[in-house]
Amino acid sequence: MEKITKISIDMMGGDFGPEVTVKGLNHAFKKLENVQANLFGNENDINSVLKKYPSLIPKVRIHHTETFVPMDAKPTDAVRRIGKESSMWLSIDSCAKKESDVVLSAGNTGALMALSKIILRTIDNIERPAITALWPNPNGDSVVLDLGANIDVSSNQLVQFGIMGYAYAICVLKKENPKIAILNIGHEDTKGSNDLQEASERLSLIFKNNFIGFVEGDDLSKGTSDVIITDGFTGNVALKTAEGIAQLMAYYTFNTLKSSLAGKLGMFIAQNSFRSLKNKIDPRGNNGGFFLGLNGLVVKSHGGTDFIGFASAIEFSINLARSEISEKIRDLIGDNI
Asked: What pTM value is reported for the model?
């Protein structure tokens, strides 16, 4: 019999709390087998929604707490003022105690990162964890890191990001021979800061032909590389810019077609194709940023997502827990750092 995979969920995180997290959990668990959930939050609030889904009740265990981390809380407040009784802290601690295999929260990103670093700590020889997410391209998905956890990074930290991203591509994306690149302002070896050039030299020694050098912003969506590494400032700006452009293009496309009778007729004829396009660009399908480099698996869902997006994050979390990514990172770091 396959091992039961246990997910720990901060039920009070996000903009909508249990109304979305419970409904999303029910939606995800209909598709998943051999799963259980440890739910951390206000028992009354959780049960008021959970009673709508009786088939879900045997698969969950509620851990009551009335304390939670507000979406606008400072990371220092989450640690010092709100403390160890919050739903976020307890859900992470469940992973640290090996009572859960992976943690999921739609709560405050800064607080989640701060608590995760304190409770789980980083893998040996990893200086800082990185926020990782999937970036769609014509060939499937690439993994991009960092997306906001580290504004300034050294060449050594970029090398660590490269190793962690490589492990992610193998274990989660199932890439047999993943290519790695550094995001820069040009492809030439002379472009970019000293840290970028030093990281490039070291990664070329570690990964040989798997390291393809520097890529530019337009390469992110081309699928030029399976792993793209950058500092958190650049990565976050790139991510938010891409999201904004996708929304703008969707707006232009559908409003232009709706502006004429011929366009409306075309939309009707091609409605299945437009439905497929909508599914491809729907951000809910890739809802789940992973904190890579910790002694435990932590996934961050978008705070404003609906139950479909949260269900997607749950599925991602379970698949992540069933991979061997932490072991792969430890092996690669031990061999190369």
From this structure: 0.87
